[in-house]
Amino acid sequence: MMDLEHHFNAMDTVDCWEDIKQKLDDELKPDELERVIFLIDPTIKSYWERNGDIRSARDLINALENCMLFEDILSTLEHIFGYTNQHTYEGQSLRKMISDYSHNRRRLGCSNIIGRETEITQAIDALTNTKNKGIWIYGMGGLGKTLLANEISEKLFSRNTTILKFDLKQVTNFDDFIKRMLAKFEVYTTSGDTMALTSTLMFQLKRITCDTCIVLDNIEDMYECEGGEVNKFVERCFDSPAYMPIKWMITSKIKFDKDMHGLVQLELQPLSKSSAEHLLNLSIRPIELEHEKRQCILVMTGRNPLAIRLISSAVKSYKSNDDLSFLNTNLQNGMKECIEYAYRSLTEADRVHLNSLSVVETSQFDLEIVKAVLEKNDQEALLIMMKLINHQVVQRICYRQYCFHPLILEYVRTRLVS
Fold it and tell me: How far apart are CA 71 and CA 165, in angstroms?
């Protein structure tokens, strides 16, 4: 069990995790607790079937601690209490308290990523070096590039730093990329002149005087299609002293193909054997698998974090170890097969929901879009999203905001076409 009882002096609203448990115990009435349990039921069902009824908020959180990774617990609770949105403590909502706790624990050194301590240190060292202006994080899909960038931004940059994030999944046109960046500065244009658009963006960047971190996430599609334009853009940003307050973090499946002064490249590899085992042990709780089957999962997933979590969530959906014959036959050490197995583990209704959401125009969407696409009310939509998130086929960005991992989105859309 993870040590969850560190005290954080920097926190404004709660002193430690135990305080949050106590506040939830004090605040939740029995009918409200029952409602929360209903929403979280798919996550904790296997736990309470083994350990009996949940009679308090503390029992509920203890159950979550035995079924989920800690960052998933915080994300789930923030989401649930944002939905109920009726409890406050000393003038602050429970959702805000949980959110502040999550941010502060990362700032004070508690990582939400397993097995990436070395990479986090390398990235922070590179970004704090005044000779460097940014890092390019690259590696195969599912290794946690986006998570790493988010973790670094939380740890490294203070509240006084502006963080601008751009999700570039499926963006293949350089002009569209520039327009997305300009929109952050409230500059909107229909121009198709690449040179004029770039000059306008450079003017906006030159106006930045405070510390700023710009995160360009999942740039690989555009880099494959317009690599020359991306190279020129990076060179222009990194060569000029006018952009000194800006640090850049860029994630991609593809390595940057030029040696650029001030740009440090960081390649992510599969997890070490011990880190992969640790992640699997935490992710698969409360299911107990024999050592041989655990080792088989590690081989099949290639120690890829996303693959480990997908398989773990799928395994937990089965009622007995007798249903795990796939460990010996079905998967051939590949991400696609892991995604396919996770997809097959969904109920037919959840597959339909996932398929419907995959055709939304953007890879990111909010609960309002879920309600509109699936024709559900607030509670029904939230329950569906909880199920899909617990199966790791959809990711929660923040309160009421979701996204697909690019590999999963590609798999589902390809399946629909075929």
Answer: 20
Secondary structure of residue 137 in the 3-state scheme: strand
Alpha-carbon distance 200 to 194, whole Å?
Answer: 10
d(CA 312, CA 280): 7
Could you tell me if residue 69 is left (phi over 0), alpha (psi between -120 and 50 degrees) or otherwise beta? beta
Backbone angles phi, psi at 366, to 5 degrees: -110, 180
3-state secondary structure of 231: helix
Report which secondary-structure segment, H or E, holds 250: strand 246-252
Q: Which residues contact 406 (CB under 8 A, 6 or more apart)?
A: 141, 169, 170, 218, 363
Beta-ladder partners of 213: 163, 247
Whether the Cβ atoms of residue 258 and residue 233 lie closer than 8 Å to each other: no
Give me the half-sphere count of Cα atoms (radius 13 Å) on the Cβ side of residue 233: 27
Would you give per-residue pLDDT tens digits along the chain (418 residues)? 333 333 334 444 445 777 778 888 887 788 878 877 777 766 666 666 666 677 888 888 888 888 888 888 888 887 777 665 555 555 567 777 787 777 777 666 666 788 999 999 999 999 988 889 999 999 999 999 998 998 888 777 666 788 899 989 888 999 999 999 999 888 888 777 889 999 999 999 988 888 889 999 999 999 999 999 999 999 888 876 655 788 999 999 999 988 888 899 999 999 999 999 999 998 888 788 888 888 888 988 999 999 999 999 888 876 554 455 655 555 555 788 889 888 988 989 999 999 999 988 777 888 899 999 999 998 888 889 888 988 889 988 877 789 888 899 989 999 988 7
pTM: 0.84
Please report, as a single letter, which amino acid is at residue 263. L
Token pair belonging to 327:
């460990």
Residue with tokens 């396919």: 340
The CB density around residue 131, as the number of other CB atoms within 10 Å, is 8
Q: Tokens for 207?
A: 């106006």
Bridge partners of residue 249, in order along the sequence? 135, 215
- Angle (deg, nearest 10), helices 273-283 and 291-301: 110
| Nearest of 318, 319, 342, 320 to residue 330 by alpha carbon | 342
Nearest to 371, CA basis, from 387, 359, 382, 355: 382
Q: Identify residue 24 by its one-letter amino acid code.
A: L
Residue 194: Cβ-neighbour burial (10 angstroms; 0-12, 13-18, 19+): middle
The Cβ of residue 199 has, within 10 Å, a number of other Cβ atoms equal to 13
Radius of gyration of the chain (CA): 22
